[in-house]
Design a protein that fits this description.
Layout (H helix, E strand, L loop, with lengths): L1 E5 L3 H13 L3 E5 L5 H8 L3 E5 L7 H11 L4 E5 L5 H5 L7 E4 L4 H15 L5 H6 L2 E4 L4 E4 L2 E2 L4 H12 L5 E2 H8 L8 H18 L6 E4 L3 E4 L10
Parallel strand pairs: 1-2, 1-3, 3-4, 4-5
Antiparallel strand pairs: 6-7, 7-8, 9-11, 10-11
Helix pairs in contact: 1-5, 7-9
Bound molecules: calcium ion.
Length: 231
């Protein structure tokens, strides 16, 4: 697997190169936003780790270019936490973000997680191993074999989060996924549906917190052994 690291601070780029290579990835580092698109064509990376503040071309513009050119996963790296919602939102569509300062190990763990969830879906047997089965045709969901008694909104919420386990969905994305008719709903509505869904999941699996709230951003489904399991 090939990782393109876009980072204009040479020391940071070298640290990332070292850790990512130790994890078995091929790594290419560039420090200029303008160098990204030509490399995408030529080197065909599997994932781009993209700093926000870059010379040449800003990380936001580069992210937009990458998105327009295909479906290569992008992890944004930023010290500007107020940008996070925009980074993950529909406008830019980054797959994940990492805040500076970071630990290189965390970066490697995120890279692994994003690559895992952008890989083709696992065979049904593997998916069942997580204990969660969702049958969208029959509107039925089971956790560890137990049929969950969900409202239609809770079912859609669970199906949405489970469509990409480990991915963070912003509240806006959750709202878009839950309501086709764009009726007026608030963040608090989402939070209360999440709360109810959590309670029903916890009734089956009391020791696990499957739906994680990511402070200030949104929610993600954290099936056992997914994001954050790496040392
Ligand atoms: Ca920078």
């Amino acid at each position: 697997m090939r990782i393109l690291v876009v980072e204009d601070e040479p020391k940071l780029a070298e640290v990332l190169r070292t850790y990512l290579q130790a994890a078995g990835y091929d790594v290419c580092c560039v420090g200029d936003g303008l160098a990204v698109m030509p490399l995408l064509e030529r080197w065909k990376p599997d994932l781009v780790l993209l700093d926000l503040m870059l010379p040449g071309r800003d990380g936001l513009d580069v992210c937009r270019d990458i998105r327009a050119s295909g479906s290569i996963p992008v992890i944004m790296v930023t010290a500007r936490t107020e940008e996070i919602d925009r980074l993950l939102g529909l406008e830019l569509g980054a797959d994940d973000y990492i805040c500076k300062p970071y630990s290189p190990r965390e970066v490697v763990a995120r890279v692994k997680a994003v690559l895992r969830r952008s890989a083709p879906p696992a065979p049904a047997g593997d998916r069942k191993a997580s204990g969660l089965e969702i049958d969208e045709d029959a509107w039925m969901a089971r956790l560890d074999g137990v049929l969950l008694d969900l409202t239609p909104v809770e079912f859609r919420l669970l199906a949405l989060l489970a469509s990409q386990p480990g991915r963070i969905f912003s509240r806006d994305q959750v709202l878009d996924g839950l309501y086709d008719d764009h009726r007026v709903v608030t963040d608090r509505t989402v939070d209360s549906h999440v709360k109810n869904l959590r309670r029903k999941l916890a009734a089956v699996r009391p020791d696990a917190d499957l739906i994680r709230a990511v402070y200030g951003v949104g929610y993600r489904l954290d099936l056992a052994g997914d994001v954050g399991a790496s040392p």
